[in-house]
Amino acid sequence: MKLLRKDVDYAVRALMCVTLAGGEPVSSSAIAASQKIPLRYLRRLLTRLISAGFLTAREGAGGGVTLAVSPREITLV
């Protein structure tokens, strides 16, 4: 029995990965590899999470995504 849709599951796992980075930018390819999420699918999810205000993105060398809000402010409700 599935409790979460695939996109919600992947989004939660991506947010956890970014949270565990402790404020350091995490590349989409690093998240995809560590969480075994297809990269193209993950990039679409990250775009939605950025638009929703959960993440911020920085392009270029040393770039990636970081949390835009405190982890305590993120809920599944």
Overall description:
The chain is mainly alpha-helical and about 80 residues long. It has 3 helices and 2 strands. The protein has a two-stranded antiparallel sheet with strand order 1-2. A hairpin with a 5-residue loop joins strand 1 (about 55-60) and strand 2 (about 65). The longest helix is centred in the first third of the chain and has 15 residues, at about 5-20.
Secondary structure layout:
Layout: H1 6-20, H2 28-35, H3 39-51, E1 55-58, E2 64-67
Antiparallel strand pairs: 1-2
Helix pairs in contact: 1-2, 1-3, 2-3
Brief characterization of the structure:
Helix content is 47%, strand content 10%.
**Strand percentage:** 5-15%
Count the strands?
2
Task: Give the end-to-end Cα distance, rounded to a whole number of Å.
Answer: 20 Å
- Strand arrangement, major sheet: 1-2
Shape: globular
How large is the radius of gyration? 12 Å
Order of helices and strands: HHHEE
List keywords for this structure.
two-stranded antiparallel ribbon; globular; 3 helices; mainly alpha; 77 residues
